[in-house]
Design goal:
Length: 695
């Protein structure tokens, strides 16, 4: 805001140089960024401050507000303009005000001035407003701008004779309503925008700009002065949507004083009579939609709390004096807390810490002692959860996967592309009320769709292979209405697993289910306290012929497998894309079992191979389970090393070849002992699974 220094000096009872005044304001939080010289009419000239005021200090966007700050900081007296009240009258008002939406307009004041003569403004008025950066138009409009600059209250002057029905209605715009503004542009309004209307149509956009139909012209004789308080957010949204910014909207957006509406209207009316003639028609029409909005706030301040926050003692009497210099009413009984009544022009003071800040601001920030904080030395490190996540991350990278990071916000339509059933819990997403983009409007409940998009994006750029993982958060339903943030592991892979070379057949380089399974086993096996269980399953969005469920201790972690062709097409991902989506929250939260040293075995192992023919539908996991249960604790390892179907094997059956490793800790095993256990294993495979030893 441009602030003419001569105008400020008129309001201050102080003998101070412009340089000193600028320094005092800046140190007090009203920054004077630069000073220029304004030269006006009749040899008038004055320095002008270019001031920066923070958005919470709308009270400082006026000459009286700046003077009030300067008087408190110097300190010195104030010479505020005297505004005469109107004589009491029982005569009815010549117009009515109806506030239809009090939430957006808590107060509306109207005052009629009759019989004015429109003409040029006197030099003193032109010099003051033009020094502050506002162009002179005519004596009536210039008065409204003068009061805006002086008191910080935006005003609007209507041609009273153009108001149909002598009725002012403060309402939201009608659907499809249009208004031609004083800048001759026609604007289509919506129902969220507040307008000032008469009995038939809108006359102005509240707090932003007036309409052309009721504009002050050379023929205007009767003036209706508007002095209102509009909701800051409403004005901000309206001005932004219309692309219009005015001196009025700038101040309304930062909150004007709801208690100063009548004072501003009277000030403008007296000045209009002074520069344009005519008379003020009593009474003032003061429509209050929300009385609580114009009530001063009551805040309690504890002097001992001020000392604790500031880190220095401030005598009680100085606290009281500093607050009173800011025109705050302080009830000081001499002991205990202070009760402070905050005037309506300071809406930024609502809690105890606000008052403490004002105390030290007036006292001087340089009075705060420079004390370096005493920070205790603590041993750093990760939490157990974080340590386990990083251990998992290291294992995944060690298995040849790249670490990825995708967005937590997804397109809800992705769930349809994944072909998830309608009753799938993952469809219960948290939807953003104000998304930045229409297709990114919900918090993800799974990692499948973001990773598929990674695959699609890389494939479209001719990247031959992708193999990566993401350790991130998903937001899944819990109960009827709540959601919980939980950690998940996602893996995506397509293309060549190991690159290509002259010594490798093409099939050896293709990503397949078993390489994905091996990566999951290797990584999660480092954290799991029990073996992972893989079972054939059917689940979206996987190909039913290549999908497995992963469980640990009877708890389902998730699924992995090849993406169904229809889903891959929907995401434009390459065919043969493999995915895993696993819930690892419980796995990470489980404390690690203490690591213990185990000595190297002293005695050699005994190895035996078993080839058994079984029904094709029996999973290898079940075969391993039976072998371990029948062999006993001396069995150290079971490894499937061959699967055969074809010549010599009946249709619907297959041969599984397994390597068994036995070891005793106290002696060397004999062949007879090993053969006895192998025979027991073969018997169990036959009785429980119908398997026969392959000859």
């Amino acid at each position: 805001m441009d602030a003419p220094v001569s105008w400020l000096m008129e309001l201050l009872d102080a003998d101070v140089t412009p340089e000193t005044l600028a320094e005092v304001l800046t140190m007090g939080g009203i920054e004077v960024e630069s000073t220029s010289l304004f030269q006006g009419r009749a040899g008038f000239q004055t320095p002008v401050y270019d001031t920066y005021v923070t958005p919470n200090r709308g009270d400082a966007l006026s000459m009286v507000g700046l003077a009030r700050e300067a008087a408190a900081l110097l300190p010195c007296g104030l010479r505020l303009p005297e505004i005469a009240e109107l004589p009491a009258t029982s005569a009815p008002a010549l117009f009515s005000v109806d506030i239809v939406d009090p939430d957006l307009c808590p107060r509306y004041v109207g005052l009629l001035v009759r019989g004015v003569e429109i003409g040029p403004s006197p030099d003193w008025l032109v010099n003051k407003i033009e020094a502050a950066g506002i162009r002179s138009i005519n004596n009536i409009v210039d008065v409204t701008n003068y009061v805006l600059l002086e008191l910080g209250q935006p005003l609007h002057a209507f041609d009273f004779d153009e108001i149909l029905g002598s009725q002012v209605v403060v309402r939201r715009a009608m659907p499809g309503e249009t208004l031609t503004l004083i800048d001759h542009t026609e604007r289509r309004l919506d129902q969220d925008q507040l307008v000032i209307a008469d009995a038939a149509q809108a006359m102005a956009i509240a707090g932003v700009m007036g309409g052309l139909s009721s504009e002050i012209s050379d023929a205007t004789e009767n003036i209706l002065i508007e002095s209102a308080h509009f909701h800051p957010a409403s004005v901000r949204r309206t001005a932004a949507k219309l692309g219009v910014s005015t001196e009025a909207s700038f101040r309304f957006e930062r909150t004007v004083d709801p208690g100063g509406c009548v004072r501003a209207a009277l000030r403008a009316a007296h000045l209009m009579v002074e520069v344009g003639g005519g008379e003020i028609v009593a009474p003032v029409v003061d429509a209050i939609g929300r009385p609580e909005a114009i009530e001063p706030a009551q805040v309690t301040l504890r002097p001992e709390r001020a000392e604790l926050v500031l880190g220095m003692p401030v005598p009680r009497e100085r606290i009281v004096a500093n607050l009173r210099r800011l025109q705050l009413e302080v009830d000081d009984s001499g002991e205990g807390t202070l009760s402070v009544r905050v005037p309506t022009f300071r809406p930024d003071l609502r809690i105890e810490e606000d008052l403490i800040e004002e105390v030290v601001r007036i006292e001087g920030y340089d009075q705060i002692p420079l004390v370096f904080p005493a920070v205790p030395m603590v041993v750093g490190g990760w939490t157990p959860d974080r340590a386990r996540v990083e251990e998992l991350r290291t294992a995944l990278i060690g298995s040849g996967l790249d670490d990825m990071q995708t967005q937590s916000i997804i397109d809800p339509a992705d769930l349809d592309r994944l072909e998830l059933p309608e009753d799938d819990e993952r469809r219960r997403m948290m939807v953003l009320e104000n998304p930045l983009a229409g297709d990114l409007s919900a918090m993800r409940t799974q990692l499948l769709s973001p990773l598929l998009r990674v695959a699609a994006r890389n494939h479209s750029r001719r990247v031959p292979a992708v193999a990566g993982f993401e350790l991130g958060y998903v937001y899944r339903p819990e109960g009827d209405d709540s959601r919980v943030e939980t950690r998940a592991l996602g893996i995506v892979a397509y293309g060549s697993a190991y690159g290509s070379g002259w010594n490798l057949p093409p099939v050896a380089t293709d990503t397949d289910f078993f390489r994905l399974k091996a990566a999951v086993e290797q990584a999660l096996g480092k954290l799991a306290s029990a073996p992972l269980v893989f079972e054939s399953a059917v689940a979206s969005p996987f190909d039913p012929s290549c999908c497995a469920a992963v469980s640990l201790d009877g708890r389902r972690l998730g699924f992995l497998g090849r993406v169904a062709p229809s889903v891959a097409d929907a995401f434009e991902a390459p065919p043969g894309t493999y995915l895993a989506d696993l819930d690892i929250e419980a796995l990470v939260a489980t404390p690690r079992e203490p690591r213990t040293y185990k000595p190297l075995p002293r005695f050699p192992a005994v190895l035996r191979d078993v080839a058994v023919v079984l029904d094709r539908g029996i999973p290898a996991e079940r075969v391993t389970e039976v072998i371990r249960g029948s062999a006993g604790e001396l069995l150290r390892r079971v490894e499937l090393f061959d699967v055969y179907e074809g010549k010599g094997i009946e249709p619907g059956k297959r041969s599984l070849a397994l390597a068994l490793e036995f070891r005793a800790l106290d002696r060397t095993w004999t062949n007879e002992e090993a053969d006895g256990i192998v025979a027991r294993v073969v018997t169990a495979l036959g009785s429980e699974l119908g398997g026969v030893l392959r000859s």
